[in-house]
Each structure stands twice: as structure tokens, then as C-alpha cells.
Design brief:
This protein has 282 residues and is α+β, with helices and mostly antiparallel strands. It has 10 helices and 8 strands. It folds into 3 domains: 118 residues, no CATH class; 71 residues, Dna Ligase, domain 1 (2-Layer Sandwich); 55 residues, no CATH class. Strands 2-1-3-4 form a 4-stranded antiparallel sheet. A two-stranded antiparallel ribbon has the order 5-6. Strands 7-8 form a two-stranded antiparallel ribbon. The longest helix has 20 residues. It is elongated, with a radius of gyration of 26 Å.
Length: 282
């Protein structure tokens, strides 16, 4: 028993070294590489080989990855039955299948992104300033995913969403997006940090009657509403709610206009006449 554990420990150390040196240089990262190798050497090796370098764009999400991930999970859970029935003699194939299934599902959502890469072999050949530039790029990527995003789909504004929530929304390339530091609404394909997580669709087949593409809707065409808990209200509608005793805002509330700009109720002249519905300050 001790001998078996020693061999397993040595193998784990060997796989960890591979994961640290080679996995961190790719988008698969250290820990996905390590667990895939431990679960089953061949799936882990293939995943490591086909994962793109951390210097390049990460693998875009796709439905095919999710389908294979679900299939792998099903076979993994089914493999537990013969494993238990044979008292473990069937082997630990189910572990490799389950880990591989989870990895493929994450890959389908475009979430296998290495924001903390390390290139050991480059450090041996390239000067230190290159390493500094790499860390700055990684830091900038991390900052870009910390924004809150607003989107417009079917003429309806939604948000704010975190970067992770935006991935789950499965937005299209035509979706309008706004975040802080953007000068206006942009198509999702024009925002650098999210252009790899959107669903691209091919353009329609051009015809001889086609002249110019239809205009992109702009924020000015939207109703002049203020967004409170995900629902849009005009100033008149807000006042009606206050008259009914439904305090959807307070003096210190912060709401958003159609451009996603924060507005403080107490400090805005537009809401000055609504302060009469609140108790006076002490």
C-alpha cells in the first residue's frame, strides 16, 4: 500500500511539473492541465496540445464542445457502476471522463482563459523587459474584465452585468454594448475584451437589389427612462409610484439613465420636485 501511494505521489509531482511549465504557457492553465493528466494521461495530453498559447486569443465557445462534454459526463457517471460492482478492478476511467466533461463544458462557454500565464523557456532567452510587458498585458486584461456592462437587445436595455454574467447571456455580434470608458454604444464585436465570447452569425447573401445595410439603432431612439432594479421608469411614472406610497427610490438612491450613466437622486435637478415625498433631513 505504501509503495503504491509513493508511486502515485511521484506521478502527481511529475504531472504538476508538466502543468506548471507547459500548462501555464497556454490558456488551459496549470490546474486544468494537472487534473486532466491525473484523471487520464491521454485526455490531459491532448487537451494541453490543442489548447492555444496564452499569447493568442482563447478558444471561442461552441455548442460542439458542450455536446461532447455532456456525453463525456454521462459515460463517466455510467462508468461508476462497473467500478463499484467490481470493487475497483474496473479501473478509474470514470474520473478522467468526468473531469474531461467539466473541462469541455467550461470550454464551450469560453471560460477557459489563462489570465496568469508564465513562459519559462522565454525567460531563458529573452530579456527581462519582455517579461514586464507580458505582465502588463495580463494586468490590463484583468482590468478589462472588471467592468459592468449594459446591453441593448430588441430595443430593450438590460444590465448592468459582470463579465462572467455577460458570457452566460450569449450575446450576438450585433448586440449594442456600453461600459465605462466607452464614448457611446458599440457593437459587441467592437469591444476588445468581449469580442471572443459572442455568437457570430454570417451575413445574409447579397442580392443585386441590396444597397446599404440598415442603420444601427442608437441610444437616442430609446424612451427617456431611468432604470431602477432592472425596470425602466419615466420621471412621471416614478412620481406616481411615490404618490401611491411605493418607494422605488430614496434620497440616497443611485439610478441609471439610458446611457448607463449614474444619477444621484438627491443631487439631480431632474428629481428635485420628488424630494417632497421624503421626510426632511435632520
Amino acid at each position: 500500500m505504501n509503495e503504491t501511494f509513493t508511486i502515485f505521489l511521484i506521478i502527481c509531482i511529475f504531472f504538476f511539473i508538466i502543468s506548471e511549465i507547459f500548462g501555464r504557457a497556454k490558456h488551459i492553465g496549470r490546474w486544468w492541465t494537472f487534473f486532466l493528466l491525473v484523471g487520464g494521461f491521454l485526455p490531459g495530453l491532448l487537451a494541453l496540445i490543442f489548447s492555444p498559447s496564452a499569447k493568442k486569443e482563447p478558444t471561442k465557445g461552441g455548442k460542439s464542445y458542450k455536446i461532447w462534454g455532456i456525453i463525456s459526463l454521462i459515460f463517466g457517471f455510467l462508468s461508476i457502476i462497473p467500478f463499484v460492482a467490481t470493487g475497483g478492478k474496473q479501473g478509474y476511467t470514470f474520473i478522467a471522463l468526468i473531469i474531461l466533461g467539466l473541462y469541455l463544458i467550461q470550454l464551450s462557454n469560453g471560460k477557459v482563459i489563462n489570465l496568469n500565464p508564465k513562459f519559462y523557456f522565454e525567460n531563458l532567452k529573452i530579456d527581462i523587459p519582455i517579461s514586464d510587458n507580458t505582465s502588463k498585458i495580463v494586468e490590463k486584461q484583468s482590468i478589462l474584465t472588471n467592468y459592468l456592462y449594459f446591453i441593448i437587445e430588441n430595443d430593450i436595455q438590460e444590465g448592468p452585468f459582470s463579465f462572467e454574467e455577460l458570457i452566460d447571456k450569449r450575446i450576438s455580434e450585433a448586440t449594442l454594448v456600453w461600459r465605462k470608458d466607452l464614448d457611446g454604444w458599440k457593437k459587441a464585436s467592437e469591444v476588445r475584451e468581449i469580442k471572443n465570447i459572442i455568437l457570430y452569425t454570417p451575413p445574409p447573401i447579397p442580392t443585386i437589389f441590396e444597397s446599404t445595410p440598415p442603420p444601427i439603432p442608437v441610444a437616442e431612439k430609446l424612451p427617456n427612462k431611468y432604470w431602477i432594479n432592472g425596470k425602466g421608469y419615466t420621471i412621471e411614472e416614478i412620481e406616481k409610484e411615490l404618490i401611491k406610497g411605493n418607494y422605488i427610490i430614496f434620497k440616497d438612491s443611485v439610478i441609471y439613465d439610458n446611457n448607463g450613466i449614474e444619477i444621484f437622486v438627491k443631487g439631480s435637478y431632474m428629481f428635485e420636485h420628488l424630494l417632497k415625498y421624503f421626510p426632511p433631513d435632520n
